[in-house]
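Lecture 7, part B: from sequences to assemblies.

Below are the input chains for today's worked example.
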Amino acid sequence: MQKTTYIFKPSEGMRTMPTAIFGSIEAGAIYALMALGVYLSFRILDFPDLTVDGSFVTGAAVSAVLIVGGTDPFIATLAAIFSGFAAGCMTGLLHTKGKINPLLSGILMMIALYSINLRIMGKSNVPLLAEETVMTKLTAFWQSLGLDEMLQTVLSATGFVPKTWGILILMLILAFIVKVNIDLFLKTDIGLAIRATGNNETMIRSFSADTDLLKIIGLGLSNALVAFSGALVAQYNGFSDVGMGIGMIVIGLASVIIGEAIFGAKTIVRATLAVIGGAILYRIIVTAALRVEFLEAGDMKLITALIVVCALIIPKILEKQRERQRKKRRAVQKAYEGGEQLAVIKTDS
Amino acid sequence: MLLLKQIHKVFNEGTPDEKVALKNMELYLKPGDFMTVIGSNGAGKSTLMNLISGKMIPDLGEVLIDGKDVTMVKEHKRSRLIGRVFQDPMAGTAPAMTIEENLAIAFSRTSSRGFKKGVTKMRRSFFQEKLETLHLGLENRLQAKVGLLSGGERQALSLLMATFTEPKILLLDEHTAALDPARAELITALTKEIVKTYQLTTLMVTHNMQQALDLGNRLIMMDKGQLIFQANDEQKQCLTVEKLLEEFQRIRGEKMNSDKAVLI
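Predicted structure of the full complex, as structure tokens:
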């Protein structure tokens, strides 16, 4: 018997594509906070910070354990943010005071956090399905507004009816609020000094800025955002798992790089918006990729790595090609002008 | 204003590469003094600058600025008192940030930084006013990234950023050496003008003897970590490049002769 092969899995079919994309935008908005954190360390401080893989889980673990213990989910999430800040500061201390290379300080913290996260959770997985979380609270709040019915009637013609719009819209609003605050912060005196630290350390030190302290603050803020994202992802997915942070830094980088490549990064305001866009786009790409028949969920990390590699290499190739064409055009023009001169000489003789 | 007391600095101590960078260095600058420093490579000029700015700490001796002992004060804290312009035009500004953002960073040199907006309307008009004094048209390009400016423009901006908050000490480390002659002349003229306007106590290292003679009211020559020649304002007026070279040869020659005497 011949087996029919499909490009797209028939079980999921084309009909559910909108639902899948809806889900990826929802998740993308939550992961956007993590991507903004990576943007702070990677782009603003010029510090490739691998702590992210650990601090993401720390955020998830702290919030999950507190929620299971009966703490209000909002306070639990706040605690998660602080734990991320502390983790980032530790990486900053290792780098600035311990004079350890940036990559190595991040790796050391990442490994240390793996054990710490296990200690926090007490086991490798904490389920949250039956608990009241930020997500369930927000959904309840949204439904009390009655906006779903309105949107549903508007969109019923398309035949696409998601369970609720609440999470998607509220998470997009949250990402946007965080983005605006980052923009404003980076324009304050201290924010300008942090940007200069990543741009020209000699210069900013000659203008009386303590670069060590600024790096520590910057890494703290970056990882606070990452932990915030981790806490929300745990509550969104309904569990916190010790392995959920593996490859998170690469996902963050992918979001930053894709976003900047597509939406541009001329100003900070534009770049942070691009990062949010990149995070959402990344989720959509992964969802689409996973629908290809021979790919499995386990291939996701490989896909992510490939996306980052492509996003890093393709712009360079394009730039080179453009440069070559420009040079060629100029050479042709010169040859043409030279040719005319030659012709003149020939007629003269 | 600036006082150096018996400064000693040795690099790679106890190894075959041991090098005495500064030996018994004494220096005093009155408020408003503008001193130029010349000397061959390895004379200790850069070390002198680094010791004043706090990038290095002397093995022995004291550094006093405005009567305060700052010998052990960290570089970033000390830079509240010191304005610096580096040799590399790229070193004094942040290329990925705009002109006004760079100026805002320089503006906060003397205060602690908080969560107030960096570029306010009031500051912006102040920046514009200061940029006009450079006569480069930068006042109309406040939102341009500094990385887009030419080397000369960047160095002029660095000079303005180092000086417009009126530091106690201004350190100029061969700040025209990496520019083409026309640009170097422009920056030299600007330096003269700015130092005069703010009456800044200035220490300028240069390789250009003519520049060392044209600028400032005092001149010192260094060799092998020691101060070998000084000229005050009057003496400096009568000096020429030839005379300086002669002087250098004479002092060096004498020293060599005395070294020979010791050896024999």
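Note for the exam: Chain A touches chain B through 22 residues (CB under 8 Å). Keep this in mind when comparing with the next example.
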